[in-house]
Amino acid sequence: METEKKLVFESDFYIKQIMKLWDEGEKWASWISEVANKYNAGKKILDVPCGIGRISHFLSKKGFDVVGVDISEKMIKTASENTSKASFRIGDMRYLTNIFNEEKFDIAININNSLGYYNEEEDVRILEQLREVTKNLVIINLDNRDYTIYNKPSEYYTYAPPYLVLSKETFDPTTSRLIVKRTYFMDDKEVGKIEYSQRLYSLHEVLAIVKKAGLKPVEVVAGHSWKNFSIDDSEMTIISSVS
Q: How many whole angstroms separate alpha carbon 11 and alpha carbon 28?
């Protein structure tokens, strides 16, 4: 199971889909900069998992000192090719203290629905690790389970050049996991597939594990905005204090 998860993020198909979100990184970077100013949090940022470096790139352009970490070697290679201003390391976010030893960051960000690939206990461990390597703020962004299960179609097509992508999603209410199956087509021919599952959280559930990890939630907003989160929002972003 562990190997299967890693293979998804090493997949060229998956990376092509993430590349479509590159410009969204600039919006996230602008909002995170506002957070840093609002809370006087500092300029040293850990971006984990950093993926292709889309947020790290724009944060570094704004003058932040950014280190990105991702378990995928291909993601880190792509991130390093995309920007020279941030630094990147291959690593598992469940073991950040092993990567950084005594090094601390002002802010740690966990953006784009990056929890839920393991079990809840491992998600708590990830949050504990983020707390351990951070001095001021931890920012977590997740899809809102309540919105997803009632509003997202179970089958849909997207385009991730050069692939047409058919996604089929099934929600298991007994485990609160979303099972995702994607088929990739090029020139009307099937060229590949990936499959994974992810635990989805409602707000009260994610706040519970945030607190269990020793973090103190200070603000909950919708996506990269300052709108107070409501159940109708597709994303929830939790700003938490380390102390």
A: 24
Q: What is the mean pLDDT of the chain?
A: 93
SS3 content of the chain, % helix, strand, coil (to 5): 35, 35, 30
Query: Cis link prior to 173 (omega < 30° from 0)?
Result: no
Beta bridge partners of 218: none
Helix (H) or strand (E) holding 107: strand 105-110
Is pLDDT at 106 greater than 60 in this prediction? yes
Q: What is d(CA 194, CA 90) in angstroms, rounded to the nearest whole number?
A: 22
pTM of the model: 0.93
Cβ(67)–Cβ(47) below 8 Å: yes
First to last CA, the chain: 35
Token output for 58: 């724009």
Question: CA 169, CA 8: separation in Å to the nearest integer?
Answer: 16
Give the three-state DSSP class for 178. Answer: strand
The pLDDT value recorded for residue 3 is 45
Q: What is the C-alpha separation between 92 and 98, in angstroms, rounded?
A: 9
Q: Which residues pair with 219 in a beta bridge?
A: 239
What pLDDT shows up at residue 84?
86
Pairing relationship of beta strands 189-199 and 177-186 according to DSSP bridges: antiparallel
